[in-house]
Design goal:
By secondary structure, this protein is an alpha+beta fold. The chain is built from six helices and twelve strands. It folds into two domains: 1-43 and 64-212, Cupredoxins -  blue copper proteins (Immunoglobulin-like); 215-302, Cytochrome c-like domain (Cytochrome Bc1 Complex, Chain D, domain 2, Orthogonal Bundle).
């Protein structure tokens, strides 16, 4: 049977079975108490049905019963909260060695860009057993990147980056959907994720790199075409070693130079002014596409502080 017609698609990622166990736990609790309440309603309704018009005598309260129906729901609720919160934290923190892939949502397609160069539309190729981190943004409206078999879904918003990660555990093809209504052709915004053996993935990657070229190279060309090197390193901060460092701002605060900071600095340079430098950088909003911003960020990531030979 096709995966899209199953109650739960086949588990195909590292955290999928944990999500499923929590899901079944909730279903079990719901089913148990639904059945218990139904049985008690029928039993008590029959046993204590009114047999005369006389008022029934007042019945005292059993404190043990009061404590039980307070403590038991509290314990169950806290178990759901702790389990769910722990799983949420785990799913929101990608491994440090995760392979990073950029995704841009656009009416009505998914545009995927690998740092090594390959670009895809409505497909995503990933290697088996390796964590994959998706850095995602939208070019127009709110989308949602959803892979049912991996139990991952994340809203993709315009104007910012959002993230999700997974570790595929089984070779195959898996459905990819937009799970947020995004316009007329929302139902057609679908694709496939291809999980491949490491050797097969490397072969696919090598062919795609030769055909399209590395993302960083495209970013280097953009950096030169827009004259970025004219200022950076002289009138503006150097880009070498910038990514991941702490940047001191003119207002006295500090910020980590991550993907979000670089994107904001490219599209809205006046948002965060670096301490000691004049606010002379123009805004490139409307001049660069989201794919070009990704290429610039990958190029900046590749710039390292040159080693000194003494």
């Amino acid at each position: 049977m096709d995966q899209s017609f199953r109650l739960l698609p086949e588990q195909s990622s590292e955290v999928a079975h944990q999500v499923d166990w929590l899901y079944f736990y909730l279903w079990s609790i719901t089913g148990f108490f639904t059945l218990l309440i139904f049985v008690l309603i029928v039993y008590l309704g029959l046993k204590y049905r009114r047999r005369s018009e006389a008022m029934p005598p007042k019945v005292g309260t059993d404190m043990r019963l009061e404590v039980a129906w307070t403590i038991i729901p509290l314990v169950i609720s806290m178990s759901i909260f702790v389990w769910g919160a722990g799983l949420y934290v785990k799913m929101s923190r990608s491994p440090s060695d995760a392979m990073e892939v950029y995704v841009v949502g656009k009416q009505w397609m998914w545009k995927v860009q690998h740092p090594s160069g390959p670009r895809e539309i409505n497909t995503l190729h990933v290697p088996l057993g390796r964590p994959v981190k998706l850095t995602m943004t939208s070019q127009d409206v709110i989308h949602s990147f959803y892979i049912p078999a991996f139990r991952v879904k994340q809203d993709v918003l315009p104007g910012r980056y959002s993230y999700e990660w997974f570790t595929p555990t089984k070779v195959g093809e898996y459905h990819l959907f937009c799970a947020e209504y995004c316009g007329t052709l929302h139902s057609g915004m679908i694709g496939k994720v291809f999980v491949m053996e490491q050797s097969a993935y490397q072969s696919w990657l090598s062919g795609a790199v030769q055909e399209q070229g590395p993302t960083g190279s495209a970013g280097a060309k953009l950096f030169a075409d827009y004259g970025c090197a004219t200022c950076h390193g002289q009138q503006a901060p150097t880009m070498a070693g910038l990514y991941g460092s702490q940047v001191k701002l003119a207002d006295g605060t500090s910020v980590t130079a991550d993907d979000d900071y670089l994107r904001e600095s490219i599209l809205n340079a006046s948002a965060k002014i670096v301490q000691g430098y004049p606010p002379i950088m123009p805004s490139f909003r409307g001049q660069l596409s989201e794919e070009q911003v990704v290429q610039l960020i990958e190029y900046i990531k590749s710039l390292k502080v040159p080693e000194r030979n003494y």
